Amino acid sequence: MTLTCPHTTMAGRGGRRKIIARILVIDDEEAIREVLEVMLTGEGYEVIEAADGRDGMKRFQENPFDLVITDLIMPEKEGIETIIDLRRHYPQVKVIAVSGGGIVPGADYLTVAQAVGAHRVFEKPFVVADLLKAVKDLLT
Questions:
Q1: How far apart are CA 50 and CA 57, in angstroms?
Q2: DSSP letter at 117?
Q3: Is the distance from CB of 8 to CB of 44 less than 8 angstroms?
Q4: Tell me, what DSSP letter sits at residue 98?
Q5: Which of 27, 45, 88, 135 is close enough to 71 for a disulfide, judged by CB 3.0 to 4.6 Å?
Q6: pLDDT one-digit tens code per residue, 67-83
Q7: CATH fold of the domain at 9-139
Q8: Cβ proximity of 94 and 138 under 8 Å
Q9: pTM score, two decimals?
């Protein structure tokens, strides 16, 4: 199934401004979600948050996104499984994986994430400007 996500507009100061793209941020750490939401909305993106892969997939099915930024180690449904589902059902969506690791180093999880279809990967803590550049590169 191939879905497209048309860019939309939203009201901003002084009138309407174009939303560059819709981004879904999936991370069980609220602080990470909040930082990404502030950073990305400041650049003109529409951002929706989800606390785990199960909630993220539900939100994606309700209204597709142009890009997904997902953590890898989360309760309920972890990021690798989420990336596999996204690649299977929504192959056009761009995916960025982030991980701080767990029992094994984050870099090991990120290697697996790339193998199953993540377009870019970042180890936590990441440089926000680098992540923003990756978002822009993937969406242009």
A1: 9
A2: T
A3: no
A4: E
A5: 27
A6: 999 999 998 899 999 99
A7: Rossmann fold (3.40.50)
A8: yes
A9: 0.85
Q: What is the pLDDT of residues 49-70, one digit of tens each?
A: 999 999 999 999 999 999 999 9
**In sequence order, what are the beta bridge partners of 11?**
16
CA dist., res. 36 & res. 122, Å (int): 13
Domain boundaries, the chain: 9-139
Judged by phi (left if over 0) then psi (alpha if -120 to 50, else beta), residue 11 lies in: beta
Length of the chain: 140
What is the C-alpha separation between 100 and 20, in angstroms, rounded?
28
Residue 57 buriedness (CB in 10 A; 0-12 / 13-18 / 19+): buried
Contact 2, 91 (CB under 8 A): yes
Instruction: List helix spans (H) across the chain.
Output: 30-42, 53-62, 79-89, 106-115, 128-139
